[in-house]
Amino acid sequence: EISWVLSRIRKKGVKDQAALLEVSLGNNNLELAGCYKIASALRTVKTLVHFDISNNNIGKKGSEHLMQVLTNNCKLQKLYLQGNNLQAEGLLNISKGLQKTSTLTVLNISNNSINDEAANSIGNVLRQNSNLQELYLSQNCLQDVGALCNINLLNLIIFDISHNHITKKGINNVHMVIKSTAKLKELYP
Asked: Model's pTM, two decimal places?
């Protein structure tokens, strides 16, 4: 399936690549080599609004390849990266790639062994984004979630931090999140 996707991107040429809006490659076991190929093919695309590369075990090295794709797509709205073993270093790369993006409405970085320090890096990037509606951080190594309280949560509808190791201080921070957003409809602590 990956070869087919890559050949379709190449056959369309640069003109059609410029209009590519959605790439969904979840659950394809891409790992590092496949991630490199996908990132190389998408490096010049600047129009992605939906990017799903979830459950591919790309690791922190794979996130280095994705950084350029994310940097070029400042109109990205939905990003699904769950289940990729990104860890703290990988999420830092993703954070760098998202620095120019203020249109993100959905971010799923669940199940990536992310700690509070890594959550802080994504929290710093998300401060500029007032459009975020869904934030998924379940199945990580979070305890405090304090950095996430500093992001712009005015439009947050879904906040999932389930299956972490949230401390009492973290629960207090979650309470602050709940108070800061009037639109929150679903909370998974």
From this structure: 0.88
